[in-house]
Amino acid sequence: MPNSKAHAIALCEDKCIGCTNCIRVCPTEAIRVKNQKAKIIEKRCINCGQCVSVCPHNALTGVSDPLQAIEKFTHKIALVDPVLYGQFYEDVVNPQEILEKIQQLGFDMVYEVSRSAPIITDFTNEYLKNAKALPVISSSCPAILRTIQIRFPDLIENILPMDSPTEIAAEIAKEELATKKNIPIEEIGAFYISTCPARSFSFKNPVGRDRSNVDGTLSIKDVFLKISGMKQDPRYAQDKNLLSPEFFPHGKAIGWARLGGQSQSLSIKEFLSVDGIDNVISILAEVEDDKLQHLSFLECQACTNGCVGGNFCIENSFVARNRIRILAEKHQDYQVDKFSGDYKKFMIQKEIKPYDVSSLDEDLSEALIKLEKINEVLESLPNIDCGACGSPSCRALAEDIVLGYASLKDCIVLLKEKR
Ligand code: SF4
Ligand code: SF4
């Protein structure tokens, strides 16, 4: 059953057969398989969901809240990611109809996350004029923020110092509902209809702020299934393009649901958009080596094709990406009102710090002794990174042995040689 409340990946040991598929794809070497059961080292996990995608036995799942969780609050807001629109066939998707159906699930207000995207775009265009380090890296994908904290701490200063679209949308939506109903903000719960486990985790453990405005997450998959089973309002059967005057989907902002949407909304040409956690890691390594300073902006998404590729989505990410493109083009002419308030309240409030997951010992001299031992053990291992021992690489096994989590007997190659 789920291994932790704070973590966004749950492991069901009963289903795990120890096949080791997951350890091969984990970008942070966060998984070990011992006694034919996987185990996640939580502090190393960036919640990218790669392991969830490859597990052939559904032993790993992303964690989100059940719909009943909204009942903890007197007043409820649903924060809708445009990725949800990409799950529906082109000829049935009408954003307004989808939002109305979500409201019927028990929400007082439905707020599109894309409405906050233009705020970030305006801020980014201003920030780029005097950015302290180039390229500026988008702060939208929480798995990427975690990757930078763990593997590329020198690039923390490149991160755009602005909250994510969801965080901003939650703050604006809560203020609007509180004013409209004349109620305290504390009585309002904001629930994000989430694309992936990384986002679910990010609201419980926010980066750059003490507390998130988002109170829970429902998975896109669960919400899609619920509203797909609802009866269609005859108004939409008659006119599938029906849009009420108060409803203005913002084409450019809807486009953020796919890779490149954020970059393309900026007034610059020198940007790069990268998807897939392995590709992102190699690009960040190039940035660290000062090879990409000609770029102004770098948009990195851990999932293939961007958020449409998140674990909580059901549609093929290429198909969903194309639907989002069509929808964004269709609504290109609509614009949300320009934000007239102060951007500063949406800026990151707390310093983003490196996240050290590799320290071998709190005592530096002890850590150095352990490092020496790891190198000694590594020399005795075959160095073929087969993963048969349950550790992702020979170096990881050497570290596990020195830290007491494994023994040389776990190396099957050595065992065969000794026979
Ligand atoms: S992929 Fe990992 S979690 Fe899934 S069955 Fe194999 S070892 Fe277990
Ligand atoms: S979610 Fe990503 S980082 Fe975490 S254990 Fe799975 S593959 Fe590794």
Write up what this structure looks like:
The protein has a 4-stranded parallel beta sheet, with helices on both faces. It contains 16 helices and 11 strands. Residues 1-6 have low confidence and may be disordered. By secondary structure, it is α/β, with parallel strands linked by helices. Strand 2 and strand 3 (37-40) form a beta hairpin. The protein folds into 3 domains: 1-63, Alpha-Beta Plaits (2-Layer Sandwich), CATH 3.30.70; 67-346, Rossmann fold; 360-419, 3-methyladenine DNA Glycosylase II, Chain A, domain 3 (Orthogonal Bundle). The structure holds iron/sulfur cluster (SF4) (2 copies). One iron/sulfur cluster binds next to helix 1.
